[in-house]
Amino acid sequence: MEGDQQTPYESVFTQWDSNSTVRTHPRRMLDEVEEGMTLFSAELMPCTTHPLVVAHGLDAVNELLTRRLYTYLDFTMILEQQYINPTLIRISENRTGVRFSEGMRRDAHFIYCDEAYHALNAVDLKHQVEACTATRSSITARPAFTATLRLAKRRLPRSIWPAVDLCFAIVSETLISGVLSSLPRDSTVVTAVRESIADHAVDERKHHAYFSRLAERFWPQLNSSEQRTLGPLFADFIVGFLRPDLTAYRQILHTMALQETDAEQILAESHPPAETTADIRRAARATVKLLERIGVLRDPFVADYFHRSGLIDDAVVNAAASREH
Ligand SMILES: [Fe+2]
Ligand SMILES: [Fe+2]
């Protein structure tokens, strides 16, 4: 790997003692699910407004939303503990294959601590919901992003896996998921869930700033062949994170008394491909902008891959192609 670092690193954690969730926010307690409230946002799980689901009655819909919360909490716990924190350890110990400044490596500890707390909150909230409702967590599907990362690594030599993990963390930490951005504002969701997710969103805004700075330093240190290998992975990871996790949704729907064909119809009609692509593009905007700024999309091959993934329009591809000629 080649290249060098540019502007001095400025920490985004100087106020961590007074503004991180782990240091300043109380444990969020769920005593009861108030009448008329749900445990997850129906807007974020379109299946629950499908006529074939609504026909089963309000209790059935609420149960699906509770199960959707469980899958979100499992997703959070797995992502933080098994994927992001191992990468933060490698950043802090200087074992990523690229150079990061001492300040940047020290700050990885703040995020490590935040993420461990987010995982704890997810587990805690899940136990509280199980204690408060008749719905037990039963969904066994691993989150879709785990397969995306596994497939990416399978095609590549082990020597580049630490860089793959950095690309994965950059995507995960700079995307603004629908849950983090809109669930806290949904007044139909119980307060403890909204507060817990709002707490998480506060920390993630600082993580976003840190990983943007990390990406700016990481990318120029790669040679052009490494950039061409890793560039398309950003698109795969973005789509892997943002596309509806149909395997998990299918399992959730199967907990209802539904015909197999009904479940497939509900999934298809709740997630029209054109709408899904537009949603992904909207949610990925900040991450794609960052990747454009650090030069990932300068390579026409990578820009074309992003275009075929539905993430950018012709103008960016044409700009990359004309730079090459
Ligand atoms: Fe987090
Ligand atoms: Fe984070």
Shape: globular
Average pLDDT: 94
Largest pleated sheet: none
- The ordered string of helix (H) and strand (E) elements is HHHHHHHHHHHHHHHH
Beta fraction of the residues? under 5%
What ligand species are in this complex? fe (ii) ion
Helix content: 55-70%
Distance between the termini: 26 Å
CATH superfamily annotation: Ribonucleotide Reductase, subunit A
Number of domains: 1
Identify low-pLDDT runs.
1-5
Instruction: Indicate the structural class.
Output: mainly alpha
Radius of gyration: 21 Å
Question: Which topology does CATH recognise?
Answer: Ribonucleotide Reductase, subunit A
- Number of distinct beta strands: 0
CATH-defined architecture = Orthogonal Bundle
DSSP summary: helix tally: 16
CATH class designation: Mainly Alpha
Provide structural commentary.
By secondary structure, the protein is mainly α. It has one domain (55-324): Ribonucleotide Reductase, subunit A (Orthogonal Bundle), CATH 1.10.620. The protein contains 16 helices and no strands. It has helices at residues 16-19, 21-24, 51-54, 58-92, 102-132, 144-154, 161-174, 178-182, 191-218, 224-242, 246-253, 260-270, 273-283, 285-294, 300-308, 314-324. Helix 5 (102-132) packs antiparallel against helix 9 (191-218). The longest helix is centred in the N-terminal third of the chain and has 35 residues, at 58-92. The radius of gyration is 21 Å and the shape is globular. The chain starts with 15 loop residues before the first helix and ends with a helix. Residues 1-5 have low confidence and may be disordered. One fe (ii) ion is lined by residues 80, 115, 118, 200, 204.
